[in-house]
Amino acid sequence: MSSTRSSIPRAAPAESDLVAAIQAQRGLVEDFFNTLALATKGNPGITRDTYGPGEAFAHRLLAEHGVARGLLVEQDLAANTYVTLPGRDRTAPRLIIGSHLDSVPHGGNYDGAAGVVAGLVAIEALCRLGVTPCCDVTVMGIRAEESVWFQVSYIGSRSALGTLPAAALEARRIDGDRTLAGHIADAGGDPDAIRRGARHLDPATIRAFLEVHIEQAATLVESGVPVAVCTGVPGNFRYPDARVAGRHDHVGTPRRFRRDASMAAVELAAWLDAMWEREEAAGIPMAVTFGRFHTDPTMHGLTTVPGSFCFSLDVRAYDPDVLARLETAMLARIGEIEARRNVRFALGTRASAAVGPVDPAISSAFTAGAGRLGIRTIPLGSPASHDAAAFAAAGVPIAMLFVRNEHGSHNPDEAMETDDFLAACTILADWICREVG
């Protein structure tokens, strides 16, 4: 293997050879997913808890695969796992293919893991075709993407890039009282280095970050198409622990005397839903989600006007200016509701994630390659946030492919067909061969 980049142009493999090399990985794909599923059953579904036993198993499985294949394996400050096929020029900016290996509680088997397995399939195909890339090709198994566990976005990817705020290390996991810093240390990472802003990945040394992911809605199923080329990753603003304070009263209290916290929250929800409808009618895609929405279980009852109400809120869109406008309008509306209903909103800690613009050249090449290979695709904005957005925020070119998936995600019923997954892997490997082969 040469240590310098060859100046001789190399022809891409014949399309039939590429397809055969990808199809030969069917056993790898099915074995990897089956092993993950058996080891991380959540009864129901899958639970690969962030910095817990489930996620740790997935990272061990990835590392063991890399060692068995003679690839380079390393771990960084946040215990992210890297499996690398060395290139002809080890000093050239590397290509990273990756996604996360954690899951929500009682989720599905493919959310996140599909992107890691896609990278392994691409590397195996390169080796089978005898292609030594001009630069390192790295598969990155990312920690802690699912923000449900610590209510912090992109923990693993931002730690690797040196962009995780130090305060995030004091966040506590929802099912215990231990900090993120403690969990990272237990996993073999170095939270003190993360706190100092140290980074494992320098954006200037990354050629691109590519992520394959199941679609988390039903557009591909509805369209009858196996793969989509991502047009953008939404940003968001979030209030994970918002509350409304009013006054508990007797069920017969006249309306003019009430300080009904539940009605105030319902009014906000109805207003946001109407705003969402108007924005979509104007061609501006966005989404609003109240993940939690409930009265105080220690006080509520059939004959009590609720004096307290709790909710979580996620608002997402593809344009940072749209997000800013939506939040400004929402805060103004909250002020009106407070004055009219004599209640007080305490939104609590605010979290956010930046919009992730995709690299148009890579995305166009994905579409062109799929057409050449006879694989039907559609353009599709991501409905969800992804680690790719953290790389985009750091200045790294990103692109994503979505794979058709029945029944949505974040539930036990995710159902991705291997044929659809291999179609996405074929598009990915075709681009890699043409770009860095």
Automatic annotation (TrEMBL):
EC number: 3.5.-.-
InterPro entries, A to Z: Amidase_Cbmase, Bact_exopeptidase_dim_dom, Peptidase_M20
Ligand binding (Zn(2+) 2): 111, 146, 410
Pfam families: Peptidase_M20
Keyword ATP-binding part of the UniProt annotation: no
Assembly information from the UniProt record: Homodimer.
Protein name as it appears in the record: Hydantoinase/carbamoylase family amidase
Organism (species): Methylobacterium terricola
Upper taxonomic lineage: Bacteria, Pseudomonadati, Pseudomonadota, Alphaproteobacteria, Hyphomicrobiales
